[in-house]
Design goal:
The protein is mainly α. The chain contains five helices and two strands. The chain is elongated and about 50 Å long. It starts with 17 loop residues before the first helix and ends with a helix.
Amino acid sequence: MSLQAPPVEARPAGTTSPVLFLAIAVLSLAGAIVSGVSLERHYAKSATSFCDLGEKFNCDIVNRSEQSEVMGIPVAAIGVVGYGVLFVFSTFYRSRAQTPFRLLIAAAAGLAFALYLTYVEAYVLMTWCVLCLTSLGMIFLISVLAGIVRLRAAKTL
């Protein structure tokens, strides 16, 4: 019995990049936490001192704006759910052959939504949210990592 790992070509698609899946899982948890804080700020009545950095950087203005909801659902709640889906794909479902593709699609959808929200911050509200920008950075990194996972999985098929 050999204790060596099988060559990459013989591994199932979901196990080709365990470090990348771990990184995506950690970023997903961090994103869910940031989105959770944003959700709390959406419903809060008091001002946020850590996120009020002046006229151009104020999470409260962004998180309580008219644009902070989609069909009555807070954008931050959508973020919590989206990061949760990414976490599930990168942990519990990572060994399934279709996971790299689904992970990439989910991450790309999250990135597209985050870029739209960044547009709203820049051109509609003209105010930036540090929590939102942090989330944008995380979903960008997750998207890049998911793309790498997908490319590596495609090479093993």
